[in-house]
Design a protein that fits this description.
It contains five helices and no strands. It is mainly alpha-helical and 130 residues long. It has a domain of 84 residues. Helix 1 packs antiparallel against helix 2.
Amino acid sequence: MPLASTKAYSAILTTLSALRQRLLRVRQQLQQPIDEQQGFAEKSHQKQLAKNCQASLKAITADLASAEKQIDTLIQSDDRLKKLFAWITSVPDAIATEVLVATNEFKAINDPKKLACHAGVAPFEYRSGA
């Protein structure tokens, strides 16, 4: 991937993250009925349903792996993103990616208290007005 400005990296990361989320939703939409019908549907119907979705699920899984690899390559190729990602890698990669996107790489939300409020984990009640 050619070097790009930080703004371009941010846009690419946002796009890849959105793609990843869409692929996860589509995969779940295909897989869930297969999983739910196990034990209820006749074995032959269950096998046919799984077979009908097999190629799509395989392709979606491959696309998901490709998107995740591109996200990782992007993060590792930019010193700032790599540093920020290192700070938050005690959580799963997908969550770390979402935090980078939601905070605009900690530019929009750079105060720990504001991040805690945004995430809904602040140890105090938020009240507006009064």
